[in-house]
Fold:
Amino acid sequence: MRILIIGDVIGKPGVDYVRGRLKSLKKLYGADFCIVNGENAANGNGITREAADALIAAGVDVITLGNHAFDKPDAFEILSGDFPVIRPANYPAGTPGDGVILCDVGNHTVGVVNLLGRVNMECVDCPFRSADSVLAKLKGKANVVLVDFHADATSEKIAMGYYLDGRAAAVVGTHTHVQTADERVLGGGTAYITDIGMTGPVDSVLGVEKEIILERFLTQIHRRFELSENPVALSGVIITVDADTGKADAIERVNLS
Ligand SMILES: [Fe+2]
Ligand SMILES: [Fe+2]
Structure:
């Protein structure tokens, strides 16, 4: 089974890019299943119904979120409905939506899990213990488990990779918007990368107009963030999984401009 995972899609330019390229990209990589992180799909912060609909219509199977999950009110409708959209599983009990989803892919069932880091992030429940309880619930239900760990600290992400090694087919990091070059299959058969990067304007600071960020660093005066309108590139990974064992055979970075 081949799984394409695409990094944080930034605003309408990112959504339009996925809409225009996903079909051919899935064909090119022989992808059976596609996950996209959509936490920035609504003008940089959060997700709207329009963006979720566009990504799903483009061929995305599951949308994961992150620390911006609830930045737009549409998230409450999306997460309470039948959309294949999940938010981090370690938000406090009672938060709308779910942190895990089961999907049929051919004869197999794939479980997708979204978790949020705690270093430099919100005060959410422990992502490691939440991973334990989510994986316990998936036991016997999902042949293949894929984890989007949305976190800031490289140490926390690497630690999660080792923590879940042999228990998930993949642990991929999102949130920093900068792709790392440390992809590998860990000893227990888990495909791992610290960050898969973003799908947004390259000539920008993490998707935002660079002049705005520069001014902020130089003056400490906060200006409203505006997305860059420069050309978009896509970042992600393609993971090859043995669906019978639930272990990864390979992980390869994907970069498309
Ligand atoms: Fe993001
Ligand atoms: Fe984030």
User: Anything to note?
Assistant: The two ends are 25 Å apart (CA to CA). The longest strand covers residues 232-242. The first helix runs from residue 11 to 29.
